[in-house]
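Illustration 12: Amidohydrolase/deacetylase family metallohydrolase.
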Amino acid sequence: MRSVCGVVGKWMCAALLLSAAAVRAQEGPVRGPALPPNPLPYDLLLTNGHVLDDKNHVDMSGDVGIKDGKIAAIGAHLNPKDALKTVDVQGYYITPGLIDLHTHVYTGTGEKNSYAGDLSVMPDGFTLRNGVTTIVDAGSSGWRNFDDFKDRIIDRSRTRVLAELNIVGSGMRGAKYEDNLDDMDGKLTGEKALKFPGVIVGIKSAHFTGPEWKPYDQAQIAEDIAHIPVMIDFGANRIERPLLQLVESHLRPSDIYTHCFSGLRNEQDPQTGGPSKALLVMRQRGIYCDVGHGGGSFAWTVAKPIVASGYKPDSISTDLHVGSMNNGMKDLLNVADKLLVLGETVPEVIAQMTSHPAHEIRQEQYGNLSVGGIADVAVLSVDHGNFGFVDMYNTKMMGTQKLVCQMTVKDGKIVYDLNGLSADMWDATKHSADERQARRWTVFSERPFGATRGQRFPTSTPVNAPPQVQDKAIPKK
Ligand SMILES: [Zn+2]
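Figure caption equivalent — predicted structure in token form:
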């Protein structure tokens, strides 16, 4: 930069630096000069929270220390002097970063009416603001288009995006593809999954309307090759292939049944309103019950009596897509709120969004706050008031608690901060932490102070800046 500054002059150079800083501010994490070493035990310390970590049986008031993207310590009283940056989260829960086991994020292909296209959403727009750091795309792509999905979304997202591979080679591109028995190949699907261990974490069958068992049996073949679980969206309700038979003889322990509370495929006992025999067999055999709320898979008339009978979901998930997120579903915390309405506790719903889904996809490195483990963290508050929670039939149940994501930490860095818990006041005269080290604990730009301020933010109006115009009332015609 020095030689450029010599040629173009000091003010032009300041403008270049300014525009570079603006780009960095938009992009978040930056490449730059090496950070000075941090001799302290922690980069970031969250203090005075209520730590909930189901996997490690932690449910206590305390602090979480983070260093180099890993959990460094959890304790009742960690010392703020041991951290570069301390954030007081009093009154809030500190939980593992949430995992959403069922989403659709293969967007950007331009295909209409397709979950491998316009019906999917961009992950980062919907996850971090909800405390979600890891999601699983549930079968939007198959072995034919997974590489495109990976390049387009997985490799470019700040959110950790994992995938269940559709048993249909072309993925979720609509009925013409998803009902095509000739494109269901367990061997090719399993072999594709083997090439991406830890990224392809499951096999998905969905939306099938035919009477055959082929999609489910091909999924088992893929499971045997790749040793990853199968998740079933059971599609159309066909008498030729009843749910009871699926869970008795076409699924195995540790497979996952999603859309558990839709009531559309005999999940509910018509006499008692409680769980059907199929749901009971599922639990007996160790097949997991996943919510997968979606646009049409959570009915109060189904979920209320089933949960009241003591049958709680193993995992809470959204089935996020453009149709569900503006409908009853909203987001992952809204789905969790619904389980709170049905009598679950905050620690229970947190477990169902952290350690449980991590276990289901056999990725136990996520969804917990183990010392030495990945520092994905959600800071959540519980608002109290009168809230309406809407189901798939646009009916609502009222509740008094609402989970709100205050802050999200991914790989040790703050990536979302609703109320600026980590921010200094705009008119502060000095930083509360060493600005030069900020990249160790946040992806956000810190306002420069002191000697660097004059260089990077000249106070004079830059040359060629548009003139400042006063707003004038537009006369009505
Ligand atoms: Zn889905």
